[in-house]
Amino acid sequence: MKYCSECGKAVEHKIPEGDDRLRHICTRCNIIHYHNPRVIVGCLISQGEQVLLCRRAIEPRKNYWTIPAGFLENGETMLHGALRESQEEACAEVDNESLYRLFDIPYINQVYVFYRGELRGNHYGIGPESLEVKLFDEKDIPWSELAFPVVTDLLTEYFQDRKSGNFPVRVEQPGPLWAEHTGWSNKPR
Amino acid sequence: MKYCSECGKAVEHKIPEGDDRLRHICTRCNIIHYHNPRVIVGCLISQGEQVLLCRRAIEPRKNYWTIPAGFLENGETMLHGALRESQEEACAEVDNESLYRLFDIPYINQVYVFYRGELRGNHYGIGPESLEVKLFDEKDIPWSELAFPVVTDLLTEYFQDRKSGNFPVRVEQPGPLWAEHTGWSNKPR
């Protein structure tokens, strides 16, 4: 941020009185502009033993596989956002949805909130942000071609949870499983 | 938003190509400025049968009671944010913390993520944003003087859950319990 979004004058980067961290403050109207983490919502959609994945048509991580997910929009609940993304990216409707997994990624200022649910009917398709949408058995998951660490962790834990039939809601930071599958390393800054 | 925060030129409000909702777009540099819901994190702190509440020293809802909570900051996990707020508002350290309750408030573009935990030692105090910080038994909770619907719902469900000793993680929209306690009505727009 270089300019005040309210009056167009330059902002400066300083700690407001009574605060303890740097904020962007307008040099004319004195408005403090706060910047906060964004929420990404998504849905792990299953049909029987299979899960629905999308191959991304857009950057970042074009050509890699993910679950339907995207930024939570103003005016919608997290579930509505997850269902909207399922519809947009995989043309899929979801039944029996429930909250499943939260991830913190503090070094990119993101919070992930994933639901799980069942594919309604056998209907799905290729949304404009996908190149391919496909149901996978566990043994066929393209582990080395998953788009993001959170997807790797989510799927790994989902298949573990499925053995017990118990799907506890948890919050975590992604990483170790992703690194194991891809050799990739990116520790929190 | 009236001006581009990157170049200072006026923005216009229109639907970008390939999108389906109005965004602020710069008339000079064409940057699309997205606005997304904010995350509020907090912690329901117990000691034995009692819970720790803070009477707010600041608006909104000055003088009303709440749990330690505030906006998630860039660079921190949700738990870190909840613990930071506990320290800032109630000078309290927390043990055995766990994820507890999520709330959607889509009509004000907010997501709440609450943890629960136990007060470390018997140490707490009055942070700069609090007028008073106090441990309450269930029968003494000031139900008609709680600051926000999410606090009413959270506390009500917490005391219900405590009877069974089972504290499932759930996501909800607040409202009905708050209306019951206060007579207040504000349906999602």
Describe the structure.
Chain A is α+β, with helices and mostly antiparallel strands. Chain A has 2 domains: 1-35, Ubiquitin Ligase Nedd4, Chain: W; 38-182, Nucleoside Triphosphate Pyrophosphohydrolase (Alpha-Beta Complex), CATH 3.90.79. Chain A is 19% helix and 34% strand. Chain A is built from 3 helices and 11 strands, in the order E-E-E-E-E-E-E-H-E-E-E-H-E-H. Chain A has helices at 78-90, 149-164, 176-182; strands spanning 11-14, 23-26, 32-33, 38-47, 50-56, 65-66, 69-71, 94-105, 110-119, 130-136, 170-172. In chain A, the strands form 2 sheets. In chain A, strands 4, 5, 6, 7, 8, 9, 10 and 11 form an 8-stranded mixed sheet that branches. In chain A, strands 1-2-3 form a 3-stranded antiparallel sheet, with no helix packed on it. In chain A, a hairpin with a 2-residue loop joins strand 4 and strand 5. In chain A, helix 2 packs across helix 3 (176-182). The two termini of chain A are 21 Å apart. In chain A, 37% of the residues are buried. The interface between A and B is large, with 44 and 44 residues.
